[in-house]
Amino acid sequence: MSITAETFGVPLKKASEIDILKPLKNLITSRYQTAEQESYIGAINELAKLRSSAVCRTLDYHDSSLETLYRYYDQIVALESKIPPSEIQIPFKWKDAFDKGSIFGGRISLTVASLSYEKVCVLYNIAALQSQVAAGQSGDSDEALKKSAKLFQSAAGIFTHLKSVVHGSVQQEPTPDLQPETLAALAALCVAQAQEVVTVKAINDRMKDQVVAKLCSQCEDMFSEALKHLQKETLKTLWDREWIPRVAGKQSGYHGLAHYHQSRVCNSKKAVGEEIARLKQAVELFKAAQTRSGDATFFEDSVGRSQRALEEAVKDNDFIYHERVPDVKTLGGIEKAVFAKPTPVAEKFSSSFTDIFETLVPVVVQQAIVSYDTRKQEIVSTEIGKLRESTQLLNSILASLNLPAAIEDVGGEKVPASLREKSLSVSQSGGCEALSKMITELPELLTRNRELLEECERQLAEEKDSDNQLRNQFKERWTRTPSDKLTATFQTNAQKYRKVIETAVTADSTIREKFESHREGMELLSAGPDNLAASLPSAIANTNGSNPATQRLKQLMEDVETLKAERDAIECELKSATADMKEVFLNALGQDGSINEAAMSTESLGRVFGPLQKQVKESLDRQESLVKNVQEAHGEFCKAATGVGGERETQLKKLAAAYDIFNELLSNLTEGTKFYNDLTQLLVNFQSKINDFCFARRTEKEELMRDLTQGLANQNLGSAPNPPAHHQEAQGPGGKATAPPRPPPPAVNPYQGAPQSTPATATPGAPPMAAAPGAPPQYNTPQVPNLPYPMNPSGMPTPQGYGYPSYPVYTPMPQGYFPYYQQQPPQQPPAGYPTGYPAAPYPQQPYANYPYPPQPQPPQQ
What PROSITE patterns does this protein map onto (predicted)? Predict the structure, then answer.
C-alpha cells in the first residue's frame, strides 16, 4: 500500500519598501562619537539591502529564500539586544497574509513604528515559508519527507510562540493573520500535517499495521483539532476555500486508514468479526472523505483496497468462521502514537549568521557604561569644585591684603611687577573688549537653542492634537496607541531642556552683573602695563624690601603660586583619568550573564580616583595653614611699613580683584559658549528623533485612515428599502392584486362661493416619513461593524502643518552637564546630574566656580 501526503502551506505577509537608512543614521549619530559613526554606515546600508531581499520581494519556496529570512531575523534579534526596539522609530508596514484585497482598494495592512513589530512579522513569514517549503517536498524521498516533517513542526512552534507574544510586541489590534486565534489554527494545521508526513512515510515503508494504525489515529485526532480551529465563525472566512474541505476530508480519511490497519491486526489474530466491522467503517469513512473534500479521487486507492479486503473477510466468515460482526461503536478505541510536536523557536535560525553590528555593545552594557560615567563625572565635578572654590577663597583673601602687590610696591611710584604681569596677561587675552564681545553673543546662542526646543514642542503638540481629533471622530475604531503614551519620554526630556535653558539665562545675567561691577578695573588692566602707572596714585613709602616681614611674605607668595600650580596639575589629572569599562562589563556579562554595575564601578573609581582625592584633601589642608601664616606675616609687614598710601593700596586691591574676575569670567564665557553650542547639537539630535517619530506616526495614521475608508466602502449597506404602503398594489385575501376601493363622491359645499371670514392658514409641513420596515438607517455617519482590523472613511480630514519627521527616544543632557549658577537646589534634582558648589555663578553645574560645564560626554540613551 502506498499513499501520498497532499500537504499545503501558509501564505506569507508582504512588507512595504521603507527608508530605514535615515532613522538608523540619526540614532547612531545621537549615540556615538563621530569617529565611530562612520564604521556603522556600511552596516546600515547592508541591513537595508538584506531587508529588501528578505521581505520586500516575492520569495521562491526554496531553502535559499529561507536562509535569507533566517539571516534577516537573526540580525533583528541581534540589533534588538543592542538598541531598544522602541528607539528605532521606523514605520514598518505589513499587509495581511490572507486578505486578497477588493476592487475598492488594497489589502488590509498595519503600520507600527517598532522593531518588535518587524520582528514578529518576519518570524511569521519564516513559519509560513517553512510550511510552503515543507509542502513542496517530494514524497518519493525519505530525506524529503523527514525535512518536510521537521519544517512543519518548526512552523507550528513559531505560530505557537507568536500567539503568546504578538499583543505585547504590537501593542495595538493586529491584522487578522496575527490574531491569537488565527495563529492557534495555523499551529494546529502545521503540526497535523507534520504527523501526516510521518504517517505516510510509515505506510510507504510498510511498517507494522499496529504502529501505522496508531499513527493514523493520532493523525485523525490532530486534523480534527485543526478543523475545529479552522471552522470558527471568526476565522473561516480567512482561509482559502479549499482548506476546510481538504482538512475535513483528511480527518475522515486518516480515521478510515486507522480502522483499515487495525483490521489488518485483527486479521492476523483471526478476529474476523472485528475485522469486518472495522473494514465496513473504513469504507464509510473513505467515502465520507471524498464527499467532505469534494474530490471523488480522494483516498481512492484506499477505498478499493478496503472494499476488496471486506469482501474477502465476509466470504471467509460466511464459509469458515461464522463470527458475529459487532457494532463498531462497541469496539475499543485505537491507541494513538504522537510523533509530531511544535518545535521551540530557535535562538538563531541561520547557521552562518554574522552580526553586521558586532561592534555595537549590548543595551545592558551601554546602560552600565552610562551609570559608570555618571558616577565618574560626579567625582570629577566634586573634586574640581573643591579645588576651584578653595582657590577662589585664597585669591579673595590675598586681594583683600593687596598681595603680592604690597610687597612689590616698596617705592610707591612704579607699577608692581605682579600687577604688570596681570595687565600683560589681560591684554594678551583680548582684554575687556573680548569679554564684551562674548557677552554680546550669548543672546544669539540662547535664541537659537530656544527656537529649536520650541519647534520640538510644536511638533509634539501638533501630532497630539491630530491624534486626539481623529480619536474623537472615529471613537473606538481609532485603535492606534494614544500620543500621550508614546511621547511621555519626549515631554520629560523637553522639560529638562527647558529648565536647563532657564538656568542658563540666570547664569548669563550673573555674568553681566559681575562684568559691569568690575569693568573699570578690567579696562585699566586691558590698557597694558605702560598705561597702568598713570592710573595709580603715588605714595611715599620707606618700607625696606629686605626686612624680615617682607621676605617672609615673599616666601609665602611663592608657596601660594606653588599650591596653585599643583592644583592645576591635579585638575588636569582628574579630567584625563579614564578606565575602559566596556571590556570589563562585556567580560562580566559573558561570564555571569549579568552585570553588577554598582560594585564594579565603585571598585574601578576607587582605584583610579582614590589617590587624586587624597591629593585634593591634602591641598585643602595646606591652604588653611598657609592662609594663617600669610595673615600673620601681613600684620608684621603693616607694622614695619611707614608712610601714607591708602588710596594707592585701595586701587591696587581693586585691580587685583578685577584680574581675578577677568579670568573667572573668561573661563565662564568660554565654557558657556561651548555649552550653548553643545546644547544646540543635543537639541538638533532631539529634533531629529522627534521628526522621525512624527513621520512614523503620520505614516501609521495614513494607513489606518485608508483602512477605515476601505472598510466603509466595502461594507454592506443592506437591501433596498421597501416602497411605502401607498405605492404598493393592494392585495386581496388570496394574495391577488385587487383594485383599490373607489373614493366617495365629493360632498356638496352649501357655502360654496361665500366669502371666507379669515384668510386660509398654511397647513403645517407633513412629518418626516418613517422608514419602511427592513430599510437601513439614514446614512449620515457610516456605521462600521465590529471589524477584526481597523479600516478608513472617505472625507477624513488630514491634519496639515506637520514637518514630518522619529519615535520617543530620550536624549539626556551629557553627564555633569547641568550648567551654571548655584541657586537653591530643587526639591528633587534630576537624577544623574551632579550639583555644584554654592559659590559659583551658575546653578547646578559640576565645577563650583565655573558656571559652564566641562566638555560634555556624548549623549547616552
Answer: BRO1
Which secondary-structure segment (H or E) carries 94? strand 92-95
DSSP state of 764: P
Q: Do the beta carbons of residue 48 and residue 368 sit within 8 Å? A: no
Burial of 514 (0-12, 13-18, 19+ CB in 10 A): middle
Q: What is the DSSP letter of 767?
A: P
Identify which of 486, 477, 467 has the alpha carbon closest to the alpha carbon of residue 797.
Answer: 467
Q: Which residues contact 662 (CB under 8 A, 6 or more apart)?
A: 426, 429, 432, 435, 518, 522, 525
Angle made by CA atoms 567, 573, 576, in degrees to the nearest 5 = 140
How many Å is the maximal CA-CA distance in the chain?
154
CB-CB neighbours of 60 under 10 Å: 13
C-beta of residue 847 within 8 angstroms of C-beta of residue 804: no
Average pLDDT over residues 532-553: 67
pLDDT per position as a tens digit, 461-475:
998 898 888 888 888
Nearest Cα neighbor of 137 from 146, 128, 129 is: 146
| Residue carrying C-alpha cell 531598544 | 84
pTM for this entry = 0.61
Rounded CA separation 282/274 (Å): 12
Positive or negative, the Cα torsion across 15, 17, 21, 22? negative
Q: Which residues contact residue 805 at a Cβ distance below 8 angstroms, ignoring those fewer than 6 apart? A: 459, 687, 688, 690, 691, 692, 693, 694, 695
Residue 94 grid coordinates: 505589513
**Distance (Å, whole) CA 346 – CA 338:** 22
DSSP assigned state of 725: G
Of 144, 90, 78, 79, the closest CA to residue 117 belongs to: 90
Rounded Cα–Cα distance for residues 78 and 94 (Å)? 21
Tell me: pLDDT of 713 over 80.
no
Sequence letter at residue 103: I
**Backbone torsion region of residue 101, taken as left when φ is above 0, otherwise alpha when ψ lies between -120 and 50, otherwise beta:** left
Sheet holding 92-95, edge to edge: 14-15, 92-95, 109-112
The DSSP element (H or E) to which 261 belongs, if any, is helix 243-268
Q: Across residues 544-554, what is the average pLDDT?
A: 74
- pLDDT, the chain, mean: 79
Closest CA to 715 of 37, 230, 139, 105: 105
Give which of 39, 9, 270, 259 is closest to 154, Cα–Cα: 9
Per-residue three-class SS string for 510-548: HHHHHHHHCHHHHHHHHCCHHHHHHHCCCCCCCCCCCCH
Q: C-alpha grid cell for residue 775?
A: 430599510
The label of the residue with cell 611699613 reads 641
| Helices and strands in the chain: count of H runs, count of E runs | 22, 3
pLDDT (mean) for 564-589 = 88
pLDDT at position 775 is: 36
CB-CB contact of 510 with 821 (8 Å): yes
